[in-house]
Specification:
Number of strands: 31
Largest sheet: 7 strands, mixed
CATH architecture of the largest domain: Sandwich
CATH superfamily of the largest domain: Cupredoxins -  blue copper proteins
CATH topology of the largest domain: Immunoglobulin-like
Number of helices: 6
Strand order of the largest sheet: 12-11-10-14-19-16-17
Shape: globular
Structural class: mainly beta
Number of domains: 3
Helix content: under 10%
């Protein structure tokens, strides 16, 4: 039987090689001493120029928190401009990117349940865009549908009521046939929604609550982000827009909000010494209970909130966050970033045994089966390529349905994302789902031949919304469909 790793490798046409990470725990002084030496010249602006010895030489930035232009009347109003910019993804190499307000990745919006947010988006690019708040429950006209675009030079106001519970959401472009390239070039950012339930918990907070958006790129000899549909050469790994950065931490607990913002790449993450990671959240917010693991698997678009306790390490230790999911030579894609323990700090945070309560699922009112297939250059849901003028599923408002999603491909992995609703995973391959499928989800991975059964309740907004594979190159190829709720 193919494992998750071999299925990914076969599906994307690349076999990984031996991981080169050095010792599991490396002294921070090693990097600092290397930085004091004359830097080796980058002879060409390509992925191969970022050698193992060049890694962990720049700090991982934390995306800026966007400031509202108005908070009057209980509404937070933000102004955002989509525009081109340049940044250093690889040290010393300027790359052209697409941004929200010049930030790569986009700035973080901090929101609170019950307090509405208005985002006024201006498109200063040369292509149409559509801004989708991934994981949010919003009215159809504010969902950022694939065909509901903002023309170059035009503006649009999006209204987010924030009536749902806390969740680590994110926003990104969704203009059909362009979404994959636009997101690849930088149009994505975090939207962190909190509520009183989350804030009442003694979890790490403030400077110890850090979003990390992980993705991959292929940088060509001119320093450009090379884009080709399904490109297996996207083998430079980024954390918050920087290739293989370091992040300095205190010897205490941190909460990291991990987002896989890649187009098609999955991440299978572990700490280089194999030590434990406590997972506390998923796409739709906190899990009912935390669980301890040594690996976090995220397909494109999925999120995981985790806590790592660095108090177990002496000051001066470096711990690499590794990735073992192909495609690509693991010498290139096997490292994400390095945590560097450089100080002590007081820590009053705790991980409670119970994080939240989820309501009991209602009795299902209907069932349906969704089949995902791909035969390049096309991709299908239920043997159909996306047609924005066709409704593929009619759903009664208030219904709670069980959807059986099948990856009918024998080689290609896929995943499944629904707009408007968070769902619960009931079964994976006929078995009780693993802890990684627990809690509220809006995106779920499916390896070749896998079947996932989920339940979603459609009791908020009426209208037309899409569901699709969130490996964006696949949705751009047609693996998307429309449901109409009414």
């Amino acid at each position: 039987m193919a494992t998750r790793r071999t299925a990914l490798g076969a599906g994307l046409g690349v076999v990984g090689a031996t991981l080169v990470t050095g010792a599991a725990l490396t002294p921070v002084a090693t990097r600092q001493a290397a930085a004091a030496e004359p830097a080796g010249a980058v002879v060409k602006a390509s992925d191969d120029a970022m050698t193992v010895s060049d890694r962990f030489s720049v700090a991982m930035p934390v995306p800026p928190v966007l400031r509202p232009v108005s908070t009057a009347g209980g509404w937070d109003v933000y102004d955002v401009t989509m525009r081109p910019a340049e940044c250093e993804i690889i040290p010393g190499v300027r790359s052209s990117v697409l941004t929200y307000n010049g930030s790569f990745p986009g700035p973080t919006i901090m929101a609170r349940s019950g307090r509405p947010v208005i985002v006024r988006q201006r498109n200063a690019l040369t292509m149409p865009t559509s801004v989708h708040l991934h994981g949010a429950s919003v009215a159809q006209e504010h969902d950022g549908a694939p065909m509901d675009t903002i023309a170059p030079g035009a503006s649009r106001t999006y209204f987010y009521p924030n009536r749902q519970p806390h969740a680590s959401l994110w926003y990104h472009d969704h203009a059909h046939h362009m979404e994959a390239e636009h997101v690849y070039r930088g149009l994505s950012g975090s939207y962190l929604l909190t509520d009183s339930v989350e804030q009442a918990l003694p979890l790490p907070s403030g400077a110890y609550d850090v979003p990390i958006a992980m993705r991959d790129v292929h940088i060509d000899g001119e320093g450009n982000l090379a884009y080709t549909m399904g490109d297996p050469e996207r083998t430079t790994i980024l954390a918050n827009g920087k290739a293989y950065p370091y992040f300095r931490v205190a010897a205490r607990k941190y909460r990291f909000r991990l987002l896989n913002s890649a187009n098609i790449r999955a991440f299978d993450l572990r700490l280089s010494d194999g030590s434990e990671i406590v997972r506390i959240g998923s796409d739709g917010g906190l899990l009912p209970r935390p669980y301890t693991t040594d690996r976090i698997f995220l397909s494109a678009g999925e999120r995981a909130d985790v806590v790592i306790d660095f108090s177990r390490y002496p000051v001066g230790t470096g711990i690499v966050l590794e990735n073992s999911a192909p495609p690509g030579d693991l010498a290139k894609i096997g490292q994400v970033l390095r945590f560097e323990v450089d100080r002590t700090a007081r820590d009053d945070s705790e991980i409670p045994a119970v994080l939240r309560s989820l309501p009991r699922l209602p009795e299902p009112t209907g069932e349906r089966t969704i089949k995902l297939t791909m035969q390049p250059p096309n991709a299908f849901i239920d043997d159909k390529v996306y047609d924005p003028d066709r409704v593929d599923a009619f759903v009664r408002h208030g219904a709670s349905e069980v959807w059986t999603v099948v990856n009918a491909n024998e080689v290609f992995p896929h995943n499944f994302h629904m707009h408007l609703v968070q769902f619960r995973v009931l079964e994976r391959n006929g078995q009780t789902p693993p802890p990684s499928d627990a809690g509220l989800k809006d995106t779920v991975n499916l390896m070749p031949g896998e079947t996932v059964k989920l339940q979603a309740t459609f009791d908020t907004y009426r209208g037309s919304y899409v569901y699709h594979c969130h490996m964006l190159d696949h949705s751009a190829m047609g693996m998307m469909a429309t449901m109409k709720i009414g």
